[in-house]
Amino acid sequence: MRVLCCLDGTNVEQVRKAMAMLATGELWTVGLLYVIDTGPREEIGRTRQRFLRPPGSSGPREQSMRETEAEAAQEILAEGRRYFPEAETFERQGRPEREIVNVAAEWRADLVLIEARAEYGDKPRIGPKSVGHVARFVVDHAPCPVLLIRPLTGAHFPIPR
Questions:
Q1: What local confidence, expressed as pLDDT, does residue 129 receive?
Q2: For a FRET experiment, which of 5, 17, 43, 114 has its CA 20 to 30 Å from that of 37?
Q3: Where are the domains of the chain?
């Protein structure tokens, strides 16, 4: 079985625990995917071009941002490889929801493991947790089943049997 695990920089431990729960003695091939989200950078670039400079001009700042994003991606994938040393790794750039679906199809994944909604920082949330737009898109468009995982929290409730 080929399991594509989507990393976001905060969820390696949740992915490890989910994979441990899935362990059935079956041979697993694990793929680790990290997508550099280019959406925010493209949005900033469009705004800056409109007001500050002509299209096509990029400076050392943009190059520095790209290098930093690539370094962060490698660190996140390296952390994933500590838990899954035999895993294949994929680094992509683009819209995360589309890249996840594309890699799942290209790699012929049997299952996609993704966090339901990325939680960054220790900000308290008001109201129920929900499925984020990336996870929703993947659920709707993936070529295989999708397993949503929740972020780890301080409170753990026993599962009724």
A1: 64
A2: 17
A3: 2-149
Reported as a single tens digit per residue, the pLDDT across 55-68 is: 555 677 778 888 99
What are the distances in angstroms from CA 141 to CA 6, 7, 31, 104, 112?
A: 15, 18, 19, 10, 11
Return the higher-pLDDT residue of 104 and 155.
Answer: 104
Separation in Å, CA 60 to CA 38, 67, 161:
17, 10, 58
Helix (H) or strand (E) holding 32: strand 29-37
Q: Which token pair is 115?
A: 């966090």
- pLDDT one-digit tens code per residue, 93-111: 999 999 999 999 999 999 9
Distance CA(74)–CA(90), nearest Å, equals 10
Residues linked to residue 115 through DSSP beta bridges, in sequence order: 149
Spatial distance between the Cα atoms of 120 and 143, rounded to a whole number of angstroms: 28
Closest CA to 11 of 77, 106, 91, 64: 77
pTM over 0.85: no
What angle (nearest 5°) sits at the alpha carbon of residue 78, between those of residues 77 and 84?
85
Q: Exposure pattern of 112-147 as b/e (b: 16+ CB <10 Å)?
A: bbbbbbbbeeeeeeeeeeeebebbebbbeebebebb
